[in-house]
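Model it.
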Amino acid sequence: IAGDYVFEWNVSNGSICPDESDLVNIKVFTAPTIPNAGPDQTVCADLLTITLAANPITIGSGKWTQVSGPTGTFSDDASNSSLFIPNGVGVYTLQWTATNLSCSLSDQVVINVDAEPTIANAGLPISSCKFALLNLNANTPIIGTGTWSQISGPTPVVFVTPNDPKTQVLGVEVGAYVFEWTISNGVCPPSSSQVQVTITAEATIADAGTTQTICN
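Modeled.
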């Protein structure tokens, strides 16, 4: 257990020679509280600060350090619930270390910061004939994945390639439709935009009547 110990090493030879001895001091310190840096977290880049959730150190003292990732800062590196301010998108590895004199233990937590998705733009309103080829015209995401969905319309439609900004749409009938283009990335709030598509009926086939011959 913790405390100061003294041990003696004694060397003897025969019965008439005096023994030789020497003392050694051993100092044993109490181990610090076993550190737990808390659960890994995934957050969006729009979050300016992250609250860490390590355990309190009751024996010894605790200290936060950064092991890897873009350089971030701690509001109080001695607090188990310190705020961490990331420096942009990336993966941060942080270490919570408990120290009591010469004894030291540590644990790590990973903070993943996702980038905000590209702002969605579903394109300009579209007017099309019922039997014409219909393709949508949204923007291509630089960050994240886009997905089409139907908000309203007289019939359910089929998006041939739902993640393609210029997907073909099947199954439209005469009427007004609203489609939504949503771009998502990780845990960040998605960005959405809507477009109205108006489908008109084909004109009645023209018939000018029979050919006539008349007298002048």
